């Protein structure tokens, strides 16, 4: 027994020693990480202040009313040269890499001024695609009351760069262009490395001394009682079904004796916990079953019978919704307002899960009720916005693309409340994005009015609408699927029927995403318009 106890004490000693070493490493890593983050944040804040100072000085200096003429004509003048000299002078006196002014054009930008070397300089009218989060950041600062967005990237061969952008306004208060500043931030790395070296060195020394003292105390006064507790615990685990209470004879007069008493209490609590766990497991299974029912209810609310109007020869529709969770926040809808007018809905509720699904049910019902009452898309969204804003303590909102189409003429009216741009294919053509200004999302603010625009469908044309789960599907490398890949998938067989086209797009998304998890609902709808019905068909209907 003594030999066995000695062997246990030796093994436990080794484990304690290893634990102390690991503890020391964790302290070093943690303290180093905390200090690194603190220094990094302080340096980034300084860089942010400097970058926005440069950007705002240029925004204040430049006359926004002149920019539209430069973009339209591509011609420079004395004022243009004066601004270029100003930007060049500021850049020479700073540690900036790039100092430039551009105009936002959808998924790319057009340069107006660029203070850079001849090797990297962009000239008036040069264009460049956005990368990473740049497009979203630019679109954010072009909204009313724009935020100050500063983000730091690691650029190979250069190191850390901080980017800030500030809008330039014309005399009417509208954003005319954007000033961009890319700041060189090499001091961040040096400061972090220096403080990290000092802190880690101090922590290693203090931890090593404290660890040796602690190990000596543990080795002298704790190992034997712990060994006794170990033996008693083995007996406890081996006899969980016994009736008699747990006992262990430890009389050290300190915390170890209290621990032994706690083991006895734990024995009683553990058996009670097992009984409660069985109850919780049963409750979890019940909740899972109810979630399955909720999933089915949500699916049943969306039109799922295709073709939806088998007796009509003027249109063909197909739609799909693949939720990221058991229940989702996306929804689509289509219905005949009367024999000659078709309503189309594509929407995305903020958030995921049950709250978004409940909000989706309310929004879908309100939109359909307003459209069936004869409202135009913009008027319908205005009424729905007011109703959804009432008591919206969860601050959910919904982006909506809503259209009403006269099937006799193909003339349509659409309102876009912060939603994705639709794709339109003309007869014998290819799908292309239809880009126009959005209105804000529904339920973001009371009293909003929504823009609407006309469009025309000719016989043979097709319309494709979708939620952001399509373009923002992400692979394992955090690369977005994007609208270009979406259009490529649509145009692989642009003449395909809707029930063939949407599965083909979904297969393209799945192939791109691979094994990466689905983070957002994926919802799509395709309408093909074949032209007005004949008088005979209309009379028979």
Work out the helix count.
13
Report how far apart the termini are: 96 Å
Number of strands: 16
Instruction: Give the low-pLDDT segments.
Output: 1-9
**What would CATH call the homologous superfamily of the largest domain?**
PPM-type phosphatase domain
Strand content: 15-25%
Radius of gyration, in angstroms, nearest whole number: 33 Å
Give the SSE map.
Elements: H1 2-61, H2 67-73, H3 78-92, E1 96-105, E2 108-115, E3 127-129, H4 134-141, E4 150-155, E5 159-169, E6 175-184, H5 186-221, H6 223-238, H7 255-301, E7 315-322, E8 330-338, E9 341-349, H8 353-372, H9 377-389, E10 398-406, E11 411-417, E12 423-425, E13 431-433, E14 453-456, E15 462-466, H10 468-471, H11 482-490, H12 498-513, E16 522-529, H13 535-540
Helix pairs in contact: 1-5, 6-7, 8-9, 11-12
How does this structure look, described?
Mean pLDDT is 84; it is low at 1-9. This protein is flat. It has helices spanning 2-61, 67-73, 78-92, 134-141, 186-221, 223-238, 255-301, 353-372, 377-389, 468-471, 482-490, 498-513, 535-540; strands at 96-105, 108-115, 127-129, 150-155, 159-169, 175-184, 315-322, 330-338, 341-349, 398-406, 411-417, 423-425, 431-433, 453-456, 462-466, 522-529. The chain is α+β, with helices and mostly antiparallel strands and 541 residues long. The strands form three sheets. Strands 3-2-1-6-5-4 form a six-stranded antiparallel β-sheet, sandwiched between helices. The protein has a five-stranded antiparallel β-sheet with strand order 7-16-15-12-13. A five-stranded antiparallel β-sheet has the order 8-9-10-11-14.
